[in-house]
Predict the 3D structure of the following.
Amino acid sequence: MSRKKARVSSSSMSASVHAASHYSQRIYITLAPKDVARFKFLLEGYDNLAVMSILDKYASVAQLRFAPGQYQAVKNFLKNIAPELAFKITDCQNF
């Protein structure tokens, strides 16, 4: 008995998938250097809601990148962890 693999063309698949955004949204935060690892740990605990990158290790400026539809979820995450970790949302025009 032979099995045939089903072939799915990219044109038939694209009709059922929502159009993807070409850009991620970003929020920049500043936090204490001692809290960077803990913040990342908590972020990963929220099912990798966003990707964190450190832009300035001396000033502890982090960039959170996430899907455009996740903005409110990221804001809720930040609100929920605010009592545990001190951070501030930063406007980083230089990065």
The first strand starts at residue 25 and ends at 31. The radius of gyration is 19 Å.
